[in-house]
């Protein structure tokens, strides 16, 4: 899998590489929610970059990202007995 760019190809600002919860609107008007999608976000351009192979695997080829937020990380600690 190719590495993600460190800078936005449009404006040149640094990208925030993380996992994102995102909503994609498909051409038929339906919306798909995807959780913990690895990607790179440009805060300046409001553009989320996702690997093309992942877009194909999630069948989002014709979809448009309409919302993305950085995924929360939850740590679960086992209670000691």
Gist of the model:
The protein is mainly beta and 81 residues long.
Order of helices and strands: EEEHE
Strand order of the largest sheet: 3-2-1-4
Rough outline: globular
Average the pLDDT over all residues and give the rounded result: 86
- Give the fraction of residues assigned to helices: under 10%
Q: Name the poorly predicted regions.
A: none
Helix count? 1
By oligomeric state, this entry counts as single chain
From the helix content, strand content and strand pairing, which structural class follows?
Answer: mainly beta
Distance between the termini: 43 Å
Characterize the largest beta sheet: strand count, sense, and whether it forms a barrel. Answer: 4 strands, antiparallel
- Portion in beta strands: 35-45%
Number of strand segments: 4
Question: Could you tell me the radius of gyration in angstroms?
Answer: 15 Å
Can you walk through the features of this model?
- With 81 residues, the protein is mainly beta.
- The protein has a domain at 16-70.
- The chain is 7% helix and 40% strand.
- Strands 3-2-1-4 form a four-stranded antiparallel beta sheet, with no helix packed on it.
- A hairpin with a 5-residue loop joins strand 1 (16-25) and strand 2 (31-42).
- The longest helix has 6 residues, at 52-57.
- The radius of gyration is 15 Å and the shape is globular.
- It starts with 15 loop residues before the first strand and ends in an 11-residue tail after the last strand.
- The model has no long low-confidence stretch (mean pLDDT 86).
């Amino acid at each position: 899998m190719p590495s993600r760019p460190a800078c936005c190809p449009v404006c040149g600002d640094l990208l925030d590489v993380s996992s994102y919860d995102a909503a994609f609107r498909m051409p038929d008007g339906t919306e798909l929610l995807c959780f913990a999608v690895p990607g790179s976000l440009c805060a300046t351009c409001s553009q989320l970059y996702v690997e093309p192979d992942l877009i194909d695997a999630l069948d989002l080829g014709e979809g448009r990202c309409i919302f993305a937020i950085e995924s929360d990380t939850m740590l679960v600690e086992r209670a000691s007995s």
